[in-house]
Amino acid sequence: MEERVNRRWRLAEYPEGLPKETTFRLSVEPVPDPGPGQVLVRALYLSVDPYQRGRMHTRRSYARPMEIGDVIVGGTVGQVEASRHPAFPPGSFVEGLLGWQEYALSDGGDLRRLDLAPELLPASLGVLGMPGLTAYFGLLDVGRPKAGETVVISGAAGAVGTVVGQIAKIQGCRAVGIAGSDDKVDVLVRELGFDAAFNYKTAADVRGALLDACPGGIDIYFDNVGGSITDAAISLINLRARVVICGQISQYNLTKPARGPRNLTAFLTNRAMLQGILVTDWEDRYGEGLNQLAVWLREGRLKSHETVVEGFESAPVAFIGLFHGHNTGKMLVKVAEPRI
Amino acid sequence: MEERVNRRWRLAEYPEGLPKETTFRLSVEPVPDPGPGQVLVRALYLSVDPYQRGRMHTRRSYARPMEIGDVIVGGTVGQVEASRHPAFPPGSFVEGLLGWQEYALSDGGDLRRLDLAPELLPASLGVLGMPGLTAYFGLLDVGRPKAGETVVISGAAGAVGTVVGQIAKIQGCRAVGIAGSDDKVDVLVRELGFDAAFNYKTAADVRGALLDACPGGIDIYFDNVGGSITDAAISLINLRARVVICGQISQYNLTKPARGPRNLTAFLTNRAMLQGILVTDWEDRYGEGLNQLAVWLREGRLKSHETVVEGFESAPVAFIGLFHGHNTGKMLVKVAEPRI
């Protein structure tokens, strides 16, 4: 019989600036057995997300910080390996915040059963998971798009951004993406239907490129990035614009606070609104969001785009890659094949 | 018979930086006669307001810029001197955007009839006018105060700020004011019932002073000032805080855009909201606001506080004084006594 071990990625040290491989430590432990009411889940896909950086320091953030030695907190899609919980029979697929480990025990309270074909499992960490829900509620509830408006998305080729632009199109808006490579720009415009997109790394002038893409100004700015890209976008907002602050990935690894042009006068003169969001604020409406996203996906109006990195051992490298723009769409780590 | 002239303050030049006396030019003209349907209004009080600075350049703002030679745009309380309009008989009191001139013609469309005792006329440019309405809708509709919350107001001793703090108290909140002199701090705390206030010019450290006054953080920040005071306040906002951007007086006279610490991460981690406001967005609800403000005033729960400068010729000096903090409460220029 095969000797099973449970590999787990733990926090080795709080990173200063960019996380690096020494931020993480691999531990190898026995696979636990489920106790009464418990489920043993075998990971198939790990999610790597920018928000995880926010838990890797002792500063206050929207979530409890991790302690040194903790298993890295993160979303997982897995398959029930053994179960003493009637709602989760062996072989069923689940999603939950099970962390970066090959096997996890759960009492089921934090698990969502996925009744999906195996090929849709990755989407349940992307379009049909937290990133999709973030895009759905952030754009529709906070951005409140009206047909004909211009929606600009920074980090447009990321897990959330790819969905925001597609939902903007479904709402009859003009979708303009800002991304960090020509390949990503290509995916946004050719595959995902954005009206325009540009590579901020090669644009001579981000503000000029935005103005070219948005001759009528910006009605909604959905921000995943922050920093100078956001400065440029805010300088072009229209009367009654809405700015959705979903992420500030350019700021997460700074060791001291950055400075930039003051922008509150733009909000005053335009009676514009800005709102920071976190998807869990819509927890009681996840069902509505997932249903609508699944309908759009089935109808072909919404496409799922993932960057899949192979192998449990690759999780730190994949995570670090987020801060270098290595993903287009949702970044996942594939840990194992489902057992059919 | 007394020879009547109409003195009018006109824009002489667009100011660079702070407006100065040469920004304005006094012209002396004949008093016009009302045509059919017209009203001739004799000014009793002129309003001087920070927003007027925004019209004195060609840059885009929330209002049409003034042209060189235009009579300075501004609110006036006056008395009908002669009338060919049935709704405004001679002797009646009115308020309107009649500009800095001793006599103005109006077709009545821009006039609000004031059925007030003469001693309440100044209040109709303050607590019972645009500043009061700005405070009322800005705090209640955008700030959405809940009893027990902490409301911080910058420019707290100004026309709007004095009312915001008093309404915050009526709502059961803790009101904390930031002002620019010890005398103003005194008025806020002793006369107007603020829970705490401090002089940002003598505080060793604005953030420290705010933290002392707000040990539980800031739930609503009502901003009239901008700049480094606002940086300090935003660094102390609580989860789901609301930031109301009503003015940015520290920024209006800058000849180049200022820089400051980036603050969007504070909005993200706190799921906080920021909204720029302009009172005319609530025009269809002015009646509601004025009624409520008048009730509070009558009940003694709201106090009117004005700084009155004497003489039509003093309007530019009074206006320039706004940017040096010369006013406590609403700044007015008294032009004439009402005829009883």
The CATH class assignment of the largest domain in chain A is Alpha Beta
Residues in helix, % of chain A: 10-25%
| CATH fold-type name of the largest domain in chain A | Quinone Oxidoreductase, Chain A, domain 1
Total count of strands of chain A:
16
Strand proportion of chain A, as a percent range, falls in 25-35%
Largest sheet of chain A: 7 strands, mixed
Give the largest interface: A-B, 34 and 34 residues
Shape of chain A: globular
Number of helices of chain A: 8
Multimeric state: homodimer
* Chain-averaged pLDDT of chain A: 95
Unreliable stretches of chain A:
none
What's the number of domains of chain A?
Answer: 2
Summarize the structure.
Two copies of one chain form a homodimer. Chain A has eight helices and 16 strands.
Describe the structure.
Two copies of one chain form a homodimer. The radius of gyration of chain A is 20 Å and the shape is globular. In chain A, strand 8, helix 2 (159-170) and strand 9 (174-179) form a beta-alpha-beta unit. Helices cover 23% and strands 26% of the residues of chain A. Chain A is an alpha/beta fold and 340 residues long. In chain A, the strands form three sheets. In chain A, strands 3, 4, 5, 6, 7, 15 and 16 form a seven-stranded mixed beta sheet that branches. Chain A has a six-stranded parallel beta sheet with strand order 10-9-8-11-12-14, with helices on both faces. Chain A has a two-stranded antiparallel sheet with strand order 1-2. At the A-B interface, strand 13, helix 6 and strand 14 of A face strand 13, helix 6 and strand 14 of B.
